[in-house]
Design goal:
The chain is α/β, with parallel strands linked by helices. It has helices at residues 17-28, 49-57, 112-126, 145-148, 150-159, 196-202, 209-221, 239-253, 272-281, 310-327; strands at residues 6-10, 32-36, 59-63, 79-80, 84-85, 90-91, 106-109, 131-134, 164-170, 187-193, 203-204, 225-233, 261-267, 294-298, 304-308, 331-336. 34% of the residues lie in helices and 23% in strands. The protein binds iron/sulfur cluster. Iron/sulfur cluster (SF4) is lined by residues 87, 89-91, 94, 96, 140, 171, 206. GO terms for molecular function: lyase activity.
């Protein structure tokens, strides 16, 4: 669970029951509490990039979400569900590194019901087609779940609507509050996994591999659909052996299952902008971003990214396809990219 050092409340959030509850809670904790118009994060001047990053990562903003159109979320879902943005984890390759500015604070919204009302409009517009919402497009939603209960509320909301599905991904294991939620099989929770070596080296502040697997088991046993995202995959000495062990471990832990398990595999890629941002806050980073065995590729929105060479990617695809179908019963490989 995220323990912020500073919490900033948008004064409007205090008009909502959740805002009031969180305000009392944090005032009783050893936490700096600030209330202002708009929940503005005012940083200190003359901070280094590292100081700004750390102060952002240790802060929580409690706000009221303006109800505007949701962003699309292709290909895994129809829409992003904007309940949270940011994350207290400090993964060096976090996809949010270039999205949240110099002070990447976590922001939660107190008007969860209004956001879900908007989701309902989309569901009704698309009927009789089903509509899928992604709850982790701009966050890892689990570190703040105990404060807001937002995921549980969303799970039950979509669980009660036969025209909708919900999905999100996490690197955290604190899922006990989701056990027993009335999901009706309409939520898929995926766990992002990597080898122990990669988690230790690059995924600071997240939960260890084994805890994520244990959390996935609890959810599976509670009837949820679950999946694993193996990402980002790196090619390094012994990568095959270590990723094979990872897949074997999933297979062993989910030996006696009858439901399908989704597997997604994403190879490491980076943009020049992300590289600069990462090195500004992790100057000693050992992330492999040296263009060796990489190809420059044009992304969906016109930007360029460095991906592994075609031959390497092909090798990776064959490897993961082979090992996942060998070790994991009932697995569906959604994609390997
Ligand atoms: Fe980013 Fe996910 Fe790591 Fe959080 S857990 S820092 S969202 S990659």
């Amino acid at each position: 669970m995220f323990k912020p050092a500073k919490v900033i409340f948008d004064e409007k959030s205090l008009e909502y029951p959740l805002g009031k509850r969180l305000f009392s809670y944090f005032n009783e904790e050893d936490t700096e509490v600030i209330v202002n118009k708009g929940g503005r994060f005012i940083g200190k001047k003359a901070e280094s990039p590292i100081q700004s990053f750390i102060s952002g990562k240790s802060s929580l903003v409690v706000g009221v979400r303006k109800i505007t159109e949701f962003q699309s979320c292709k290909p895994s879902a129809n829409y992003q569900l904007p309940l949270i943005s940011g994350c207290s984890g400090m993964c060096e390759y976090c996809y949010l590194n270039t999205q949240l500015g110099k002070r990447p604070y976590t922001k939660i919204y107190v008007n969860v019901d209004e956001i879900l009302e908007k989701a309902l409009n989309y569901i009704n517009e698309r009927k009789p087609k089903t509509t899928t919402f992604e709850g982790a497009a701009t966050s890892d939603p689990i570190p703040t779940e105990e404060y807001t209960g937002a995921m549980k509320t969303a799970i039950e909301f979509f669980g009660s609507n036969e025209y909708s599905y919900f999905r999100f991904v996490t690197k955290f294991s604190n899922v006990d509050s989701l056990i027993g939620a009335k999901h009706n099989g309409r939520t898929t929770i995926r766990f992002s996994l990597n080898t122990d070596r990669i988690i230790r080296e690059f995924e600071r502040g997240t939960d260890p591999f084994i805890k994520r697997i244990e959390a996935a088991k609890k959810l599976y046993n509670d009837g949820y659909k679950i999946g694993f995202i193996i990402a980002p995959v790196f090619i390094y000495e012994n990568w095959m052996e270590e990723y094979e062990n990872l897949i074997k471990k999933i297979g062993e832990e989910f030996r006696d299952i009858d439901k399908k398990i989704e597997i997604e595999v994403i190879s490491h890629r980076y943009t020049e902008r992300a590289k600069n941002q990462i090195l500004s806050v992790y100057p000693e980073s050992k992330l492999p971003m040296d263009k060796e065995n990489r190809t420059l590729k044009y992304g969906q929105f016109g930007y360029t990214k460095y991906v592994y060479d075609k031959e390497e990617l092909e090798r990776m695809k064959i490897f993961f396809k082979d090992k996942a179908s060998k070790y994991i019963k009932n697995c569906i490989i959604k994609y390997i990219i």
